[in-house]
Amino acid sequence: MLTIGGTAYFKVFAMESIERKELEDGTQIKFRTTNNDIEVYKNDSWSPLFIKGVNLGATLPGEFPGSLPITKDDYLRWFGMIKDMGVNTIRIYTIHKPVFYEALVEFNQRHGEDPLYFMQGVWSPVNLLKEQQDAQSPEVTKAFKEEIKRAVGAVYGDITIPEKDGKASGKYTANAGQYLLAWHLGTEWGPKTVQNTNEQHADAAPVEGDHFKSKPDAAAFDKWLAELLNYTAELEKKHGWEHPMTFTNWVTTDPLEHPKEPLPTEDLASVDATNIETENWKAGYFASYHAYPYYPDFLRLTDKYNDIKNAEGKVDPYKGYLRELKDYHEGMPIMITEFGVPSSLGNAHIGALGRDQGGHTEKQQGKINTDLLNTIYQEDYAGALVFEWQDEWFKKTWNTMSFEEAHSRPDWYNYLSNEMSYGLLGMYPGKEDDIQIDGKQEDWQKLKDKEKQDLTPNMDGWKSITATHDEGYMYITAKLEDDFNPNDENLYLGVNTISGGIKQGGPLQDSKLNEGLETLIRFGKEKESKVLISSDYDYHNQLYEGEKGKVEMSTDTGTFQPWQLPVSLKLEPPHAKYSVPFQEVEVGKLPKGTAGEFDSKDYQPQALWQSKGNVIEAKIPWALLGFSDPSKRNVVSYETHKQETDELKTKKTEGIQFVPWTVQEGSSKATGLSEEPFPVTELPLYKWEPWTKVQYAERKKESYYEMQEAFEQLEEIKK
């Protein structure tokens, strides 16, 4: 009886709670498109509604998205925070577990006529598309239609999906159809797949569906999308509803021409929403794009938009691009369904006006995101959905994936990988809420003995060194015999993980070690505080030697290199339209600051070290210490990289030995390294058991509050 009652609640009672328009044939409609807007039916009339949205991922730290670990309690908690941020619409990319739809209905029942709407995405068969390079192949179309059918059943609570690895499954009984804003089909399309489909099926007949049709001269890929939209409409119509529809598109396959784009593949093929029209579909249809300010490269190289300036009078290529894209889609609404920048130490692309793909504090992330949001709104788009709600640790980044082990990527937080840090809701490593960097040791005293290790060396000048770790960082605190003055001296922590590295020279001054250092942590003046990497261990130089040129590699001269990542590879004809130089950015700098309280709105996770008196405290990202997978104690090895593969060789370390010394300004003496050679191998070894379960701490970033203010200032009902 409880099961029957619960099903009846979701399918009957919930459907009676929200205002909607009934068409002549009895079909229900809540949203519709006009020439420029999405309209909502409310108070017995239609009004333009600006879609203020956020993209919601399907996973948590420690899991790949296919495991769908998010619980109903997670969803309910998040929906409250999302609504408080001023968002009116959530977008999901694929079918979630039944608890998502149950939680959404339950949450919205509490909010009456002011619910949280959602866009239902349908994930395309990406593996089949990549394999066959032909969207119109029967296998691809069949697989996509099967997924559409499952998605419609999930939204309307009318399906049981059998278990399958990497897919949502279960009995769907919650009818969330009244809260659906739109259907959002597909993923970002590969330009070669689009081109091949168009060439292979150049004579494909136009689609003449009951609800969607293609223009006679539409390309084959566009006709395929028209067929899928029509199929979705037919299925939805059976449930007595119509909703607006769209498909995913991005700058790479937009219908515009980008003469300053150096890579031919980025301007190879077009997917054109204007080639599709509705037929007897009152809810309508709109165009949607993922559009970021740093990708593709033409956005920083073009002079096409030099006459388009922002409120500060600066040339704004992103604003110019949005304007041109909007003009092209005249007569239909257009929405930016992904935009944003990450809060990460690492950076992967340079964007105009400082809108890089990374290298931002959380406050900077919020400022840039709000600027992008306002630009989209000012250019008269129908909506804007920021990417994304929560940080996702499983994500890979093109310039860090070479030194990450793919199978365990979700098990640790790589602060250099910007893709992990797009969230407005931070997913922080497990001890982030226990240890706040402030140059004090009170929080260390609260840690259990088994959570920390005493690494105090038998050396003059050091009272104590203590270390601990979590999924993102090595934490170190030290108490010196005398006060540390960063303006007059440098404090070094050499890092030994495996055999090899620098044993003498450079910052070691006249001292020698019996075992080499892979990396070096230097604390001192603001611009001098950073993590450096041994020249013979620097796999950045190894990976990109052919593009950036030979770099000195020596274990005798003490040459430590800045820690760098590429943000642009060297491009030359015929592989590019014109030459683009190799470009790299330094990412090993250690910002000094006081983090504050973890639960505070102003908490600063980017504060990586602080000193007060004779105490120093730091947290160092695992990747800067050479780790490819700290959960297994794996580091990048010294084995020569093979140029035919991007993957670096790795090996397991027994642990870490930290070699401490100080150098006074103007001195040639490494204080503390008195023995000759200094016995690194006799120092305490920081060792930990590999982990399989991830601990993390959830917190709204400072960017959340920036976006909250920006959303509140926008007129939701457009005038």
TrEMBL record:
Taxonomic path: Bacteria, Bacillati, Bacillota, Bacilli, Bacillales
Organism listed in the record: Pontibacillus yanchengensis Y32
Gene3D superfamilies, alphabetized: Glycosidases
The protein's name in its UniProt record: Family 2 glycosyl transferase
